[in-house]
Design a protein that fits this description.
58% helix; mainly alpha; 79 residues
Length: 79
């Protein structure tokens, strides 16, 4: 994987900020559910939970930007 440019990271951060609707710097499962339903409109509650658990790699019940960036760069399109 090639190094990310500041411009690209800023673009991904704008996506993160869009779904961080309460603007607390984290994406919770409700916010992630909205994101996943845009990517996959037929996503079930179980699929949302499983996806959230996978992206929340440190399992602290919210997705920080570094986790989001890793997911965005590696496999968001698989959801």
């Amino acid at each position: 994987m090639k190094p990310l440019t500041e411009e690209h990271i800023a673009e991904v951060k704008s996506h993160f900020d869009f779904f961080d609707t309460d603007k607390n710097g984290q994406i919770d499962i409700k916010e992630f559910g909205k994101l996943l339903q845009l990517l996959s409109p037929d996503a079930s509650e179980e699929q949302i939970k499983n996806g959230f658990d996978w992206v929340d790699s440190n399992h602290d019940t919210h997705i920080e930007f570094d986790e989001f960036l890793e997911w965005w760069e590696t496999c968001w399109w698989e959801f």
